[in-house]
Amino acid sequence: xxxxNVMGFFVVILVILSILVILCLVRAIxxxxxxxxxxxxxxxGTMVITIIAxxxxxxxxxxxxxxxxxxxxxxxxxxxxxxxxxxxVYLQRKDEEDHR
Length: 100
Known about the structure:
single chain; 3 helices; mainly alpha; about 100 residues
């Protein structure tokens, strides 16, 4: 396998991942539930991390791996915060329904 075939394969994978990120963005926007939106947000973060890692390999740039790790940490924290907020709202609604 020569270098052009490998680069072509990477480009195809990047295009597929980009399409999947757009589809996850649509799912995050239309829902229908909050849990669907949280999962879609998490999937977008995971795919962006994969895209950055592929670009790091394609371009032979080590600093992109560092950016990938930082993005993974931020994405993880964002999903944890979203889940915490969702659970707080859910429990508050449940308490209000119990008191009625």
